[in-house]
Design brief:
about 300 residues; mainly beta; 5-stranded antiparallel β-sheet; 1 helix
């Protein structure tokens, strides 16, 4: 129902010959290029569509309600899509460059990368609570959140003191940490994004700069390598893990082979064996987030 609603609600065009033959899942993919007017791609019933809205970053699905962050460097712009309801849009100018969204315990969390903080929001976009981390502006480059057990975990490029001090210094400086206590849970990461906990308890993260999908805990040491890609965005069903593979805009300081592919792709990994079954091209430069939508 939600996929059909989005196709009815939003101007769109079909991307022909997408290569998703045999994939039964419905996927929504956010496109973060700031100049794009096609900020979402939707895979539905084997067809790939471009949805004509501004650049998007974080996605969160709660039942049939879809939360979408429209990427803006100096403010929050949030839309809520729900079948049968009028689309809502909220602005907040005290936070910005919203990278990720998540609902936990009935509260909506948003990552404000430009102000180095995480906030909870009301359904009208009002800030209810703030977790502000040390540093000036976008110093840590906090980006994505997830829930591991009872902990809200956050990925960041590292603990740096000044605005974008991570530039040129991201190799193995990245971390995953507990939002409440700031306890460091994973270290020696390079531009990490998208911590995820799947339905069988596997903890994973995109080690974006090295082009890897990494696993921890019981699967510690396992990884899936995507040569030439910047990994970011994970969704999974009972059959597949879908990984966003971006071509970087900025390649300075990136090792040869990383982020050098011509366009974005979705890597399709077998959920059980972790074998990469295939990669399918998405005719955009970057992918930020990937989420699974219900098929009905």
């Amino acid at each position: 129902m939600l996929a059909e609603y989005l196709l009815k609600e939003l101007p769109h065009s079909e991307i022909p010959d997408s290569g998703f033959d045999g994939i039964s899942e419905t996927l929504l993919i956010s496109i973060p290029n700031i100049d794009t007017k096609e900020g979402l791609c939707l895979l539905h019933r084997g067809k790939l569509y471009s949805l004509h809205i501004p650049s998007c970053s974080g996605l969160w699905l709660e039942g049939q309600k879809l939360y979408v962050s429209l990427l803006s460097p100096d403010h929050m712009r949030l839309r809520i899509y729900e079948p049968g309801k009028t689309t809502k849009e909220f602005l907040n100018t005290s936070i910005g460059d919203i990278h990720d969204l998540r609902i936990f315990g009935g509260e909506l969390y948003a990552v404000s990368t430009s102000t180095n903080e995480i906030v909870t929001l009301s359904e009208t976009g009002t800030i209810l609570k703030r977790w502000v981390f040390p540093g000036i502006g976008d110093s840590w480059h906090i980006n994505c959140i997830d829930v591991w057990g009872e902990k809200i975990v956050v990925s960041a490029f590292g603990k740096f003191p000044h605005f974008r001090a991570y530039k040129g210094r991201v190799k193995e400086a990245g971390i995953v940490f507990d939002m409440e206590s700031q306890e460091i849970l994973q270290t020696h990461l390079s531009c990490p994004h998208t911590p995820r906990l799947d339905e069988v308890g596997r903890k994973m993260i995109c080690d974006s700069r090295t082009g890897r999908l990494l696993f921890f805990d019981q699967d510690k040491g396992k990884e899936v390598m995507f040569d030439g890609a910047f990994t970011r965005g994970i969704a999974f069903s009972d059959k597949h893990i879908f990984v966003g593979l971006s071509s970087l805009r900025h390649r300075v300081g990136i090792k040869p082979g990383a982020g050098t592919q011509a366009s974005a792709e979705i890597g399709i990994v077998d959920f059980k064996t972790l074998e990469c079954l295939k990669k399918v091209a998405i005719p955009r430069r970057e992918i930020y987030d990937v989420t699974l939508l219900p098929n009905n």
